[in-house]
Design a protein that fits this description.
This protein has helices at about 5-10, 25-40, 60-80, 130-140, 160-170, 175-180, 180-190, 200-205, 210, 245-255, 275-290, 320-325, 335-345, 350-360; strands at about 20, 45, 80, 85-90, 95-100, 110, 115-120, 125-130, 190-195, 195, 220-225, 235-240, 260, 270-275, 300-305, 305-315, 365-370, 375-380. It is an alpha+beta fold. The chain has 3 domains: about 5-130, Methyltransferase, Cobalt-precorrin-4 Transmethylase, Domain 2, CATH 3.30.950; about 145-210, no CATH class; about 220-380, Heat Shock Protein 90 (2-Layer Sandwich). Strands 12-11-15-16-18-17 form a 6-stranded mixed sheet, with helices on one face. A 4-stranded mixed sheet has the order 1-2-5-4, sandwiched between helices. Strands 3-6 form a two-stranded antiparallel sheet. α2 (about 25-40) crosses α3 (about 60-80) and α11 (about 275-290) packs antiparallel against α14 (about 350-360). The protein starts with a helix and ends in a 7-residue tail after the last strand.
Amino acid sequence: MDAIKLLEIIACGETSRVQFKQILDNQDKTASEMIAMSNSKGGMILFGVEDKNGKVEGLENKELQELGNKLSTIANDFIKPSIYITTEAVKINEKHILIVHIEEGIFKPYKDRNGAIWVKQGSDKRRVTENSEILRLFQQSGGSVDEMVINNTSGSDIDAEKVEEYIKKSQKDAAEIEKIPKAGLYANLNIIKEEKLTLGGLLFFSKEPQKYRPAFCIKAVSYIGNSIGGNNYRDSVDILGTIPELFHKGMLFFNRNLKHLQAGQNFNSAGKMEISEIALEELLQNALLHRDYTKNASIRLMIFDDRIEIVSPGSLPNSLTVESIKMGQAVVRNNLLVSYASKLMRYRGFGSGIVRSLNEQPNIDLYNDIEGEQFIVKIPRKQKDSE
């Protein structure tokens, strides 16, 4: 960087990507600044510039060398995981400014040696404490949120029978499996990490998932009328359990609250639901497996007289649009959940599921509510309830 460009940057003052420091007076504070930039969009710290007024004070040659060594130590020993920094010295009016370049990290979230996580907030920084925000940082680094560990859980929360069912359906060699200690087996299956359950392990193999994540359930209501603000309803239930259990109970809710049509079947048969059962299965599975689990919110199933709505927390990930998913495009948000579902559920894949639903029930409407951070499925009902 040349001196003119640097002076232009200094003249603009401190921002979320530019910080001034006259000297390195506190290694932990400097580490937190570097962490905040790594967890955000990156930036630079200018040493030799007064942070209050932007006055160029400069550094001596000896100070440059010592400062460079200290910064390398901070990047390697004060930050976990370590970050990579680059430095350059620019001369302004016989004074040296040391520029420390910090890239946006690819292994978020970065923490200080006390375990604190920092992000930029304007020209300042703030400490992150909310689990949902920590999960978002992890997701930004390309990690799968369902691999995050759930604090306060342990192997005692695992339902061994559910794991045995998964192993059986995975067609793994039972004799070989028996040779592996349980703790090792659970770790190999990504059910446990660091002696705690992963989110995927909790949602598929625990005894009581909602004990640790109460919001990760289904809230289902069958209203009388067509307004969510109505006080009258036919059925209302909070559905609890693992994802396979939520799916099964959710389908039971649809079955008991939707009309059944004979459609040429035997008079004594139960009849077919007014909405394609295959379409409902695909849509409910997608809601459970592809929702945004960084959001502390429930899936909502709502039956009105004129429509059904399935509302999932989180809008479509990355560059997906309603048009692209109708064409079968997919981005898997929760890899671990999908891997479990492929053995324990009727799941065939996100892209094919939407296409199959539309083939079975062409009047499905899909809404990607980016502002409200939710994905909404609406299906008109063929007949109004006469009640």
